[in-house]
Specification:
heterodimer; A: mainly alpha; Arc Repressor Mutant, subunit A; 8 helices; 0% strand; B: mainly alpha; 2 domains; 5 helices
Chain lengths: 169, 109
């Protein structure tokens, strides 16, 4: 089934911001890069709209492409080394106006804990707990066995939880 | 086993996961999504450029054919001053006659 322009527009408005947020967190809070990547993602979807199957999940399809784009980006960029600069520069832009100082600190600590996850755990963690996808969906997107997904998620969640112990979370 | 451990840990970490989702919502709502025309527009622009190029080529060929039919046939190129125009006319006439010599056309262009 070929996506019509109207269907594409509706999907973009529904999922665009979500995909952009995923890219931003995957790329160490590089807001501009996330914007470029979401534009690239939806350009690819628009150009390959003939290959979309009506009975398939758009979310799974979208995140499969997004996940592979992130993997390619990781290969070409040294994200970990530039992370500290990005987090310092962007944190002030993404806290809520109503946050107390302690809430801001908690959010920042959480961002740092997620960013500190290894490359093979971070996308799984974000897909599961940020995007609220199921384990079978994550396994399809990442092309990993479900057992591997669960093991990595367990390790990642333990690690983030340990980092947040200070806040009794 | 792992599934149960994961499920248990997720249940224990509910407050943490709620904070994560809340943070996600705040972050996502602050994002500026690129305009949809920047996505679909690129494609349309590319098609438009191809169409424009094709029209220019077609118009140039048609003009050449018309000039070729109107221009006098060049039989004598001994007159140096007339050489360019007669050469051009011959090229265009060749096109009009359907006798497309690509080497000649490329040289001409």
């Amino acid at each position: 089934m070929r996506l019509t322009a109207e269907q594409f527009r509706a999907l973009y408005l529904e999922h665009g911001r979500r995909a952009q947020g995923f890219f931003m967190r995957m790329m160490g809070y590089d807001v501009q890069l996330a914007r470029d990547m979401v534009q690239d993602l939806f350009t690819r979807i628009w150009e390959h709209r003939d290959t979309f199957r009506a009975n398939a999940s758009f979310t799974t399809w979208m995140f499969s492409i997004a996940y592979n784009m992130c993997k390619n980006e990781y290969r070409h960029r040294e994200i970990v080394q530039t992370y500290q600069e990005h987090i310092i520069n962007t944190t002030t832009n993404i806290v809520s106006d109503t946050d107390t100082l302690e809430q801001q600190q908690r959010r920042q600590m959480l961002q740092e804990a997620i960013n500190a996850l290894p490359d093979n755990q971070k996308p799984l963690f974000l897909l599961r707990y940020d995007e609220e996808l199921t384990i079978p969906e994550i396994a399809r997107i990442t092309m990993l066995p479900e057992g591997t997904v669960k093991t990595r998620l367990l390790t990642a969640l333990k690690s983030v939880k340990e980092s947040m112990n200070k806040y009794n979370l | 086993m792992e599934k149960d451990q994961l499920k248990d840990l997720e249940n224990e970490s509910q407050e943490l996961l709620d904070l994560l989702k809340e943070t996600r919502d705040i972050e996502n709502s602050a994002l500026e999504l690129p305009a949809i025309d920047e996505i679909t527009g690129n494609r349309k622009q590319s098609i438009t450029l191809h169409r424009v190029s094709a029209w220019w080529v077609a118009a140039a060929l048609a003009t050449g054919v018309i000039i070729g039919n109107l221009a006098p046939r060049a039989t004598d190129i001994s007159n140096g001053s007339d050489y360019t125009s007669t050469y051009y006319a011959d090229t265009c006439r060749s096109l009009a006659d359907g006798d497309i010599n690509f080497a000649l056309l490329i040289t001409h262009l």
